[in-house]
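Sample pair:
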Amino acid sequence: MSSTIESLNNVKLDKASQDDQYTDITQLLFTKAQKLKVGTVVKSPSFSLFEGTHALEVTNDKLDSGLIELSEDELQFDFKKGRSLKEVLHISDYIFRSVFVWLNNASLPVTVFSCRYVENILVNYTNNIRGGLSSCKFYDPKETIEQVGNVENQLVHKVLRSVVLGVLHFVRLSLTLGQSGVVYEEEDINTQNMNLDVLSLIGSDQVLGEIISSINFLSKHFAGEKDAILITNILQILKKLIDLPFFLSVKIPRNSNGKTVNVEVLDSLLRNCALLQQNLDYLNSLDEIPGLFSLGIQKRLDNRSPTRSLISPNQEDYSSLELMLKDFKQIFDVRYRSDILELKNYTLNFANKSHHTVSRA
């Protein structure tokens, strides 16, 4: 096997290589393949045993994601172009709903990560983690784009960008729960991240600052407009979810009868959620943007699974968000239990009912 790896290491696919041609490895591949024994597991320092036993058959269109054919809209999707307020609302709504589709036993590559804007920010950040927020752009960070005075450009590269950052901050929290074993991988949550770094070194305060700036921008330029109110509402939810880990870590002193715990933020989040649910028909009526969600990420990036179809965000009606928030309120009702027996019965009763993945964690 080592000789195969050495041979492949000498293969150069760079167009600038000798004779400006790709190297044909067909014969080499078939020659080496003939030496593989049927029924044995191939092992090599180049990959783990797990990867070896989960290898997928190439040239099988149901398994080989390299065979995915993309539409012209997907191939030519323009990240730099400015968009209208209504388009930004549609994109923001779909990205946010995708999070709860993912948490309902789906995977990131067919939900949140399949959005081209999300993919590009993650790829750019992963390629230059030390760049911090400056790496979190929809286009190549080395390029520049005119934003001053161009409201539609700012709607994309300021407002929509802050929505994506807020969503990824919540995704990172949820992934942390799954990867730490608090909930079960595959059974409760799928943590496959395609080897993308989900903003690991971006601080909560940095994301919060971007969101607040976008809320102020919408208030200044689109005060009172329905679409702006709905985008602001999504941003307000993401803003409050940033503090979720701190809120849930509150310790309830003995004999406090719950007086030291403030659950107003949960009531506020439930009102934000209700506004989205009340406008669901309007949100679902917005025109789709061709190429916005794509199988392309499964073709381009580190995909360890067979090709899977995308799951439409409109399958989520924000009821999952509502369930999660109501679960949190129920969890904090533990502060009213007066003795250990009552506490035990309350927690057992909670555990025996169906709850959102995040609240179970």
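The longest helix spans residues 151-179.
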